[in-house]
Amino acid sequence: MSGLEAINLARDPHPIGFIAAPTEMAQQSLERLTARYGNAPPALARTLVCLGGDGFMLETLHKLLGRAETPVYGMNCGSVGFLMNAFNEDALPDRLAAAQAAMMHPLRMHAVTMGGAVEEALALNEVSLLRQLRQAAKIRISVDGRIRLSELICDGVLISTPAGSTAYNLSAHGPIVPLSANLLPLTPISAFRPRRWRGALLPSSSDVLFEVLEPEKRPVAAVADFTEVREVASVAVSEDRTIAVEVLFDPDQGLSERIIAEQFVT
To answer: Which one, out of 54, 136, 173, 188, has a CA that is 20 to 30 A from the CA of 162?
Structure first.
């Protein structure tokens, strides 16, 4: 830390850092908020305020994985904003002081390709397997070393975090899961056989293995949030509790409340 940084930290023991999406709205908001509250470097910020939508928030959280000492408070300058708080320039330090924290743990994907290459990635939303060509995928699913579904014929299958259960998982008709449930939704995407299988809720401690059957004829891609691996032979997924990121929400608008409220949307 430089001498000037130490002086600034002494003047403001709770410095705020801002990061903004490249959209016009987010950049204009960044300019106004920086003029009003300053903009601490990420290494010195006590709280990082993210300006944008859910996609930019997810990108920011990925960059901060493993740095739980730097909580992130999102303000919506996008469209959906499920992970964001309402945008308001006033009394920001007071809002940050009153905010409620939610700890998010990622899924770790360990993918092995048909050529034997190994790829690892983290996902805060979900890990999904998707057919690459016109042929439906054939996938065997094991949980904790035990085969639970010997053959799933489908467009794909995904496993999500509780926070991600309202994203792609919900669009695939999977269940919404509260943060405190310690469960991971496992959801098929357009299942053909077994046609009536709707998925499963697994303990968050589960080790899940997807094995691609007939991979040459029915190639499959694996996607962990932003990371895609083509022509996979197998994909192992488990929750990594050693890594966390802290997200802040306004009182009575926490992530757990939002997940519960989403289940009553008509």
So the answer is: 136
